[in-house]
Amino acid sequence: MMERLLTMFEQADPFSTWWPTIAALAVGIVITVRTIMSGQRCPNDNQIKEQIVVVTGGNSGIGFELAQALAGRGGRIILACRNLQAAERAATIIKRELGCRTPLTSLDDDDDPADRYFVEARYLDLCSFRSVHHFAAQLMAEFERIDILVNNAGVVFANTEVPTEDGFERHSQINYLGPFLLTQLLLPHLKRSEQGRIIMVSAHAHSAAKIDFDDPLNVGTWAVKFHARDAFAHSKLCVLLATRWLARELKGTSVTVNCCTPGLVRGTRHLRNSPLMSAICVKVVTYPWMWLFMKNAYEGAQCAIRLATDPQLKQVTGEYFNDCEIAPGSEAGQDKELAKKLYMQTVKTLESVTKLTVDKEALGMETEPELRLEAPPAAETETETNHGEGAGEERKKEERQPLE
């Protein structure tokens, strides 16, 4: 039997049919498309030895890959996650995997390479301003500085009809307001770093966002009609706009702030609430296409890795990155006056909801710098929420210009 098979292969003529050529062409196209869609890799392997890095949502997906990459480059990683058990498990996995890649250099056989990596989990629920305040206060009490803050955690396809405990639409608070507050609270420690970096994660969806100049936070009565897709897009546009304006506020300081999109990424938990992903048959049909046209989590993390580690970006701030390069973003995302309006309304809204106070002279900044939060009692949380504040202001007549 084997002899007959060998004889058939020896006598086979690959040019007698087009099928081998067609198959080779198809494989080549698939490989080419997959390579293009996977995006660029971080173009450097720079070390960030002993730098203190905070990664929100670092227990899975892009956050996990980002945390592992930065830990491997010498960073001291803090995983800020709502699921503390999953975060602790992720920290253990990161240290174990990095330790397995690191050869022993000590003569002591009991020396564990994993002990060289500092990765720990902390509880942070962006649905709760109280939790954000507690996390920031604990972090600043334990560390003398923070070098890198990556606001990676986010949600999509959440129930827009069920608000957070602070009374806001869930996409808006988890994707934007919570990270905004966390960033402001940690600014004093970021300024103590030789070169503090803030990285905000947006999404391609920001280009489809609906936003009202008179109510950029969309806290008016019509916001409750948002579909989850629209709410997600709006929150990510807010992230981009706030990044642009915060960069202007931090001009002249040692802190830079930039925004990036990971692209279309599969293998994360973002689609767990998607109605399309609820049926097994749909998953089976769509998976090959997702594999072909979407990045995996490691590929999606590359842009943020570059923003956190590349010394060439030391003076770059207020930019939007895609595939490790500066990209223009949407027209609304470049609107200077809209960015200012959103930033100011955000500060004003958080002042009314969380009892934060603004110290304009503490950091020598031009307008709205450090925010100090005094968490209100639980009974006051509902009564003091004023979502419509600022929504009735008249639109400014001044001409709106793109951000410089």
3D architecture notes:
The structure is a single chain. The protein is an alpha/beta fold and 404 residues long. The chain is built from twelve helices and ten strands. The termini are far apart. Residues 358-371 and 373-404 have low confidence and may be disordered. Residues 361-373, 384-404 have a biased composition (Basic and acidic residues). Residues 361-404 are annotated as: Disordered. Keywords: Oxidoreductase.
Question: What coarse outline follows from CA principal-axis ratios?
Answer: globular
Task: Count structural domains.
Answer: 1
Strand coverage percent? 5-15%
The helical percent reads 40-55%
Gyration radius, rounded:
24 Å
How would a crystallographer describe the biggest sheet? 8 strands, mixed
Q: Give the assembly state of these chains.
A: single chain
Give helix and strand order, one letter per element, not per position: HHEHEHEHEHEHEHHHEEHEEH
The residue ranges in which pLDDT falls below 50 over 5 or more consecutive positions are: 358-371, 373-404
CATH topology: Rossmann fold
Class derived from helix and strand content: alpha/beta
**How much is the average pLDDT?**
81
Classified by CATH, the class is Alpha Beta
